[in-house]
Design goal:
This protein has 10 helices and no strands. The protein is an all-alpha fold and 238 residues long.
Length: 238
Amino acid sequence: MSVSTRRRHARRRSGSGRRTQEERRSSTRALLLDATMECLVDLGWSGTSTTEVARRAGVSRGAQQHHYPTKMELVGAAVEHMLEAQRLAYETAFAILPKERRNVAGALDLLWEVFRSRPARALMELAVAARTDEELRPFCLDLNERILEMILETFERLFPANTLPEDAVPTMLRGLFAMFVGLSIQNALDDDAAGRQREVLTQIKNIARLIVPDGGAPVPAPGAAPEPAGPTPQGASS
C-alpha cells in the first residue's frame, strides 16, 4: 500500500471517528434531557438534581458535567428540548389524523393530549417553581409566550381559511391556553376521575365549531411528501 493510500484510509477512519463521536455526544445529551424531564414530572423541581438526572440517564456524573456543568444549564437545554418535543408531537399527531377529523375539534383533542403529556407537565412544574426561585425564573419568564407562539403558528398553518379577524386569533388562543393550563393542573391531580375536564373540553369544541370552519390544511407527516388538498369535509365531528 502506497503512502498516499495509507493517508487516505487514515483520513477516512479519522472522519468516521469524528462522526461517531458527534453521534455519541448527541445521544448522551438526549438521554440527559429526557431524564431531566422525567425527574421534573416524577420528583418535582425540588427533587430534581444533576446526580439523579445522570443516574436516570445511565451516564456518569463526569459525562453529565461535561455536557451541562450546572443544573441551570441542564434545565435551560431541557426547556428547549421539551418545547420542540411538544411542537413535533402536536404536528405529527395532527398529520396522521383521518381526513374527517382534521378539523378544529380534532385539533383541540390533540392539543389537550399535548397539555397532558410528560413534556408539558415538566414545563408546568418549572413555571410554578419559578414563582419563588429567582435563579430559575429567567428561564421561565417567556415560557408561556413561547408556547402560545407555537400554538398560534400551528393554528394558522392548519386553518388558513378561518374567517376570524386577524387580531382576534391571538386573544382567542390566549384564552384557550389559559383554560387548558388550568384544566391540565387539575388533571395532574385527579386524572379527570369525575369527567369534569372532559365536559369542559366538549363544550369548548362545540363553541369552536361555530367559530372556525371545519377542515384543516393537510399537514404531511415529517419526511413525507405534501398531500394534495381535497374538498373540505362537511359535518365532520370528533
